[in-house]
Each structure stands twice: as C-alpha cells, then as structure tokens.
Amino acid sequence: MVCLGIPSTKLTFLLLVILCLVFPGTARTGEKSPRGYFYKDLDYGSESQFNPLSSMINWTFDTLQVPASFSDNQLQERWNTVWKNLTNPGQAVESTGGWLAFINRQVFPYKMSEMDWIPNYTLHLFGGGLVYRKNAEWLEAKGAPFPRLSAAVLCMMAEVAQEVVEKGTTRPDDEVADVFIFRPLGILLFSFDSVARYSANTLHFAEWPFQPMYDPSALNSSGARGKFTNVGENFVLRPNYFGLKEHRPFIFFGMTVLAGLSHKISMSDSLSWGVGAAIVQTQDPRKTRMSGGLFWDRNDSLLASVIFNGTDNLAVRLNIYPGIVGPRKWWSPGLYVGIGDRGEFNVGLTIRLLPVGLAKIGNS
Asked: Which among 96, 133, 162, 192 has the fewest CB atoms less than 10 Å away?
C-alpha cells in the first residue's frame, strides 16, 4: 500500500471495522483452519507462483489491462476521493442518484438498465471469495496464525487499493458497493467448506492469473518512468455437468470473457479453448472486441496460454509459466510475449520466486 500513498493507519482501522461488523467469526481465537480446496502446493504452472503478495498485485492492478478506462496516475488524489466516499457512504450514494438508483445499478438491476452489477457478482463476490479462500489456505499451509482473519485483511486491502486505481473513471458509489457489500460477502460465502467444496470439486472453479511484469524504463500514464504490464486476474469454470468428464464446458472470465470446451488429454492435463469478447472500455460495456484463447493446464495449474485480440491492446498475449522450461526449482523461469495491435513487441521474464518479473514494453 505504500506505493499508493495510502495512510496505513486509517486503512487498517477501516478494514478492521468492516471485518468486525460483517464477519466477526473470522476473528475468533482458535479459528478453524481452512481446508485446501483452491491452494495447490505445486512446483509448476500458475499455482507455483501463488502467494499473498502476487495475489495482491494481480488484484490491485488488474484493471490496468483496460487502458482506455483505468490508469495508475494521481493515486494520492484518488485515494483521498475513495477515503471520502467510504467514510461517507450515504453521501456517495446520494450523489449518484440515491439509494434506489444504487440498488438498481450496483446490487439488483430491477430496471435492467445498468451493467455495473455484473462485475460485482462475477469478480468481487465469486472471484474475490475464491481469492480470499486461496490466500487463507496458503497461510494455513505455511503455519501462519489466524489464516482466515489474515487473508481477509489482505484481501480487503487489495480491494481498497483496486478501487483507488479505478477511481479515475468510476462513480462515487462504486467503492461503496465493492468494499462494503460484495467483497465481504464473497469472503463470508467462501468461508463455508460446503461452498468451497462445491466450487472446487463440481464447478472446477479456479484462478488463472497472468504473470505480472514491470518495465522500469516505460512511461506510465502520468509521464513518469515505470509501468506494470501483463497484470490480470482471470477465473475459469469447467463444471462436471452433462455426464461429460473428458469434454467439459469451459468458461474463462475477467476483463476477457470466453466460452468453449475443455478436453482431457491425459490423466492430469487438459487443453481448453474459448471464444468471446474482451472489454475495451468499462464505461460502455457494449464496447468490446472479439477474442479467443487456448489454454494448457495440469491439475488446474495453468502451464501456458495464448489469447488473441484480448485486453491491453494486444493482438496476441502468450504466457508460459514456470515449470515448463528448465527444472522445477525456485528460479524456474516464466515467459511473457505480447504483440500489440500496431505490431509493437513486448517481452517479459520472471522466476518462480518473484511476484513480479521484468519486461520490455515495445515503443516505451
């Protein structure tokens, strides 16, 4: 949070108030340890890179892959706005049309005239719930005290940080819905073993993030040097429906939404494909572009992916995760290659131990 210029004492106090009011059970002494439904201690693929820090980076900067709507400049000013709206939620709601308009836009679209509620449910509630549970399972596996409470605090910090990044274009009531309603409900929902078990074992709900990269020489939106690239949270569903175990429905969603099929090619490996649309501008959800992707995973850990015509103004985005090239060690490399719509070439390299790799962005 230091990079966002956010006062840590104020933020910690706000998050603790939310935690105590919405789900006080997570703070009990001797809390029940989470069972491992989503965190897989694997030495290959996307799962080998997972830890709370990499998770926070992906969640915080996820929306930067839609540069027409989001940027990383003026973060201190945006933090001040977010803090004002979170500490005066009634005023924030009234400034955007009042409570009925808030409910229609953010919670329950009874007029079916708004689209803001869609990412609230898909990403902040269900995606955010999975990420919380996965963080809790990681912390429990590493022997951290109070893994659920610790995971909840970390995830709420990432949620607030994401709202700061998004603040340049979002309405004043957006962070009210995400921070006070949907992310806490996602944490509460995935605290139940029955929900986690059904999501993991029946829906095959999993997280397939990109590999965050940083180019210290690239100009960011504020004109300063240093820019993140290839950051993004993505989720997949491959439900065990229709009695088809070898060929299952496949849904990939985040800033890009794809639908297709997932095919078993061995006892542990699957090849999935999908077609759909990538978001171009969040203010107008009708502004999308046709997209498609191919994905290779092993035991739900993504090994390689290629997305065509996706976000970040990329015609091609290729990610090869650690464990495919070279031995499965702490220094196992991951590779990112992006080809922009205008032919610019981006390349990045990471190692398994690091939450962020180094990249060179074309025309930077």
From this structure: 192
Reduced to 3 states (helix: H, G, I; strand: E, B; else coil), residue 37 is coil
**For 245-289, how does the pLDDT look when each residue is reduced to its tens digit (9 = 90+)?**
789 999 999 999 999 999 999 999 999 999 999 999 877 767 889
Q: How far apart are CA 166 and CA 69, in angstroms?
A: 8
Phi, psi angles (nearest 5°) of residue 303: -95, -40
pLDDT bucket at 102, cuts 50 / 70 / 90:
very high
Please indicate whether residue 200 or residue 33 has the higher confidence score (pLDDT): 200
Cβ burial 217-250 (10 Å sphere, 16+ → b, else e): ebebeeeeeebbbbbbbbbbbbeeeeeeeeebbb
Helix (H) or strand (E) holding 100: helix 99-102
- The model carries a pTM of 0.88
Residue 228 forms beta bridges with which residues? 214
Q: Helices in 51-127 by DSSP H: which ranges? A: 52-60, 75-87, 89-94, 99-102, 117-119
CA distance 264 to 38: 20
Residue closest to 37 by CA, chosen among 231, 226, 300, 287: 300
Query: How confident is the prediction for the chain on average, in pLDDT?
Result: 88
Residue 17 has pLDDT above 60, yes or no: no
Domain locations along the chain = 73-201, 206-360
Which residues are 235's β-sheet partners? 207, 253
Joined together, the tokens standing for residue 168 give 């340049």
> What are the residues facing 260 on neighbouring strands?
250, 274
**Kind plus residue range of the DSSP H or E element containing 361:** none
The pLDDT value recorded for residue 34 is: 60
The answer to whether the CB of 204 falls within 8 A of the CB of 237 is yes
